[in-house]
Amino acid sequence: MSEQDPVKLMKQQVGKAAADRVQSGSIVGLGTGSTTAYTLQYLGERIQSGELKDIKGVPTSFQASVLAKQYGIPLVTLDDIDHMDIAIDGADEVDPNKNLIKGGGAAHTREKIVDTLADLFIVVVDSSKLVDKLGSTFLLPVEVMPLAITPVMQKIEKLGGKPTLRMGVKKAGPVITDQGNMVIDVKFDSIDNPAELEKTLNNIPGVLENGLFVGVADVILVGEIKDGKPLVREIS
Ligand SMILES: O=C[C@H](O)[C@H](O)[C@H](O)COP(=O)(O)O
């Protein structure tokens, strides 16, 4: 048997566990990232096998809508629905109060719109994402209108943050979000009050949304490896 990458294994397990919680007839927020990619894959498999019927997906990004189409998950927009039963999404950091940093894939603005509408918001992560304090391993993403990049960075510096414009990996120039904006990643020495920082940042003119998700997640599913075997732990 070939050796499997343990992080991939944890993501697979947890992505599948979340997909198993979706019931027929549900309207489902479809998250973005490498972990929820497995959720979408398993949702598609359950649909194809006939076990899961009549679900509708609301994508949180271009990536999520491409994968949903690939896996045969019917899509609707927010204009077509009056409620959302469940949303499943990944995270870059999760603290002990189930607060999150999201936006490693620059999708946090649409994710926050969709995830906060759901009756049940399930977060899927591998165990490396659990932190004692938000901001300790990951920079905080902030989506900003391009014309406001300089004043927003100056205001964030005055708040004690160190902002960097996110640049493309294979593209020369900045990362552009699905909404046509840019992302700055901010290092704060210590995020002591995530709820206050979330509001303060969103109050800067030109900021669309930041990646702090405070008091939003209902359940965290954590993929772990114990004694060489993958398992899923629930924090609720
Ligand atoms: O913008 C991207 C999202 O917030 C992702 O859900 C987050 O970055 C986690 O992604 P992954 O599951 O690939 O670590």
TrEMBL record:
List positions binding substrate: T32, G33, S34, T35, D89, G90, A91, D92, K102, G103, G104, G105, K129
Q: Where is the active site?
A: E111 (proton acceptor)
An example GO biological process term is:
D-ribose metabolic process
Q: Which GO terms describe its cellular component?
A: cytosol
Write out the entry's keywords from A to Z: Isomerase
So what EC number does this one have? Answer: 5.3.1.6
State the pathway, as annotated in the record: Carbohydrate degradation; pentose phosphate pathway; D-ribose 5-phosphate from D-ribulose 5-phosphate (non-oxidative stage): step 1/1
Q: Which reaction does it catalyse?
A: aldehydo-D-ribose 5-phosphate = D-ribulose 5-phosphate
Q: Which InterPro entries match?
A: NagB/RpiA_transferase-like, Ribose5P_isomerase_typA_subgr, Ribose5P_isomerase_type_A
* Top-rank EC class of the record's enzyme: isomerase
Where does the source fall among the domains of life? Bacteria
Keyword Nuclease assigned: no
> A GO molecular-function term, please?
ribose-5-phosphate isomerase activity
Q: Which HAMAP family match?
A: Rib_5P_isom_A
Q: Which NCBIfam families match?
A: PRK00702.1 (NF001924), rpiA (TIGR00021)
Its biological purpose is as follows: Catalyzes the reversible conversion of ribose-5-phosphate to ribulose 5-phosphate.
Family, according to the entry, reads as follows:
Belongs to the ribose 5-phosphate isomerase family.
Q: Quaternary structure per UniProt?
A: Homodimer.
Q: What is this protein called?
A: Ribose-5-phosphate isomerase A
Source organism: Limnoraphis robusta CS-951
This chain is encoded by the gene named rpiA
